[in-house]
């Protein structure tokens, strides 16, 4: 039975990855930070499953604590380590840049060096991000050879994590791989991320609990896929004979405006847009009610206008391809939030 450690297991990706590895027969160890409030809802179905008591374990830990990480690595002796932990909210990274650097960037080298110093022969996966690219005009779709140009403290911290992973791979012959994942969403996405913010608002508006939705840059384009598909890509990266770096994406890009339209369409609302820029508003075409407006407070200090990934290498070398379409993803999220409201 293979053993895997997942940092960030309570997050969206960590929970889906835990599901996948359990399904594949792994013994799974999750690392969780100590909180005064319970925040394990995404993995409670595993934690409360009595049949998994000898295969699913939780440990307190933090990427800012090297001694703790070293102790866990020695104790567990994993075959695979998936580093998904980070301060992962782009907008928040402008508010807490130093903390973002400490966890999202420096935390990677702590974990890598603990593995290296232990002498353990295990595989390491680093969760990189499309925010590495930032957005250079004329460089889309973006692939493994596209120049990086991060435009947020989060993106810069992730860039350090990407390069230190490559450095340890080349310096110490470690199996250390980067998965450069473009935006991936799900019903388990945090409520402060724009996609989930949209689908929750649509569900509440359809239920009469909210009047309108305020957003930032409606023109921003993203390559959106389903998180469940992407964690399979992570696992496939770790099953290769040699380490490498792979872009996981859908090879499609859609604006925030399109996401809004698709989400409202699920509840039978056709959005009609009027105005431009900060004055743009979206109205229910049938009733004339204002449903969407633009609030400058949600603009980033440095905006990334376009992210669009080319997953050709992953499709060729890993046999990976996304299964859930953009339309299916949006519908899945809206319907899940409608059901959540009923509960």
TrEMBL record:
A Pfam family recorded for this sequence: GDP_Man_Dehyd
Record-annotated NAD(P)-binding domain positions: 5-333
InterPro entries: GDP_Man_deHydtase, NAD(P)-bd_dom, NAD(P)-bd_dom_sf
Keyword Protein biosynthesis (UniProt): no
HAMAP family assigned: GDP_Man_dehydratase
Family membership: Belongs to the NAD(P)-dependent epimerase/dehydratase family. GDP-mannose 4,6-dehydratase subfamily.
Signal peptide residues on this chain, from the entry's feature table: none
EC id: 4.2.1.47
Glycoprotein listed as a keyword: no
Example of a GO MF term: GDP-mannose 4,6-dehydratase activity
Functional description taken from the UniProt entry: Catalyzes the conversion of GDP-D-mannose to GDP-4-dehydro-6-deoxy-D-mannose.
Protein name in UniProt: GDP-mannose 4,6-dehydratase
One BP annotation, GO: 'de novo' GDP-L-fucose biosynthetic process
Cofactor(s) in the UniProt record: NADP(+)
Catalytic activity: GDP-alpha-D-mannose = GDP-4-dehydro-alpha-D-rhamnose + H2O
Keywords per UniProt: Lyase, NADP
């Amino acid at each position: 039975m293979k053993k895997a450690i997942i940092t960030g297991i309570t997050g969206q990706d960590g929970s889906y990855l835990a599901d996948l590895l359990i399904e594949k027969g792994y013994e799974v160890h999750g690392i969780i930070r100590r909180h005064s409030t319970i925040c394990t809802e995404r993995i409670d179905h595993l934690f409360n499953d009595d049949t998994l008591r000898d295969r699913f374990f939780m440990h307190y830990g933090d990427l800012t604590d090297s001694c703790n990480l070293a102790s866990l690595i020695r104790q567990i002796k994993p075959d695979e380590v998936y580093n998904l932990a980070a301060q992962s909210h782009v907008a928040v990274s402008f508010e807490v840049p130093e903390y973002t650097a400490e966890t999202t960037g420096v935390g990677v080298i702590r974990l890598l060096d603990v593995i290296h110093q232990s002498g353990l022969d295990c595989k390491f996966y680093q969760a990189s991000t499309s925010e590495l690219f930032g957005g250079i005009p004329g460089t889309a779709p973006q692939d493994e050879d596209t120049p990086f140009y991060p435009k947020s403290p989060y993106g810069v911290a992730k860039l350090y994590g990407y390069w230190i992973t490559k450095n340890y791979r080349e310096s110490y012959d470690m199996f250390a791989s980067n998965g450069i994942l473009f935006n991936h969403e799900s019903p388990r996405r945090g409520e402060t991320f724009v996609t989930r913010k949209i689908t929750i608002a649509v569900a509440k508006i359809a239920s009469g609990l909210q009047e309108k939705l305020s957003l930032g840059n409606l023109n921003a384009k993203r390559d959106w896929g389903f998180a469940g598909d992407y964690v399979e890509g992570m696992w496939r990266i770790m099953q290769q004979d040699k380490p490498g770096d792979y872009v996981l994406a859908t090879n499609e890009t859609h604006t925030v405006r399109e996401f809004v339209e698709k989400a409202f369409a699920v509840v039978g609302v056709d959005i009609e847009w009027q105005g431009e820029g900060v004055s743009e508003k979206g109205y229910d075409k049938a009733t004339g009610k204002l449903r969407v407006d633009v609030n400058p407070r949600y603009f980033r200090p440095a905006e990334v206008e376009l992210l669009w990934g080319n997953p050709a290498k992953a499709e060729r070398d890993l046999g990976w391809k996304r299964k859930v379409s953009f339309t299916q993803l949006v519908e899945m999220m809206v319907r899940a939030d409608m059901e959540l409201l009923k509960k």
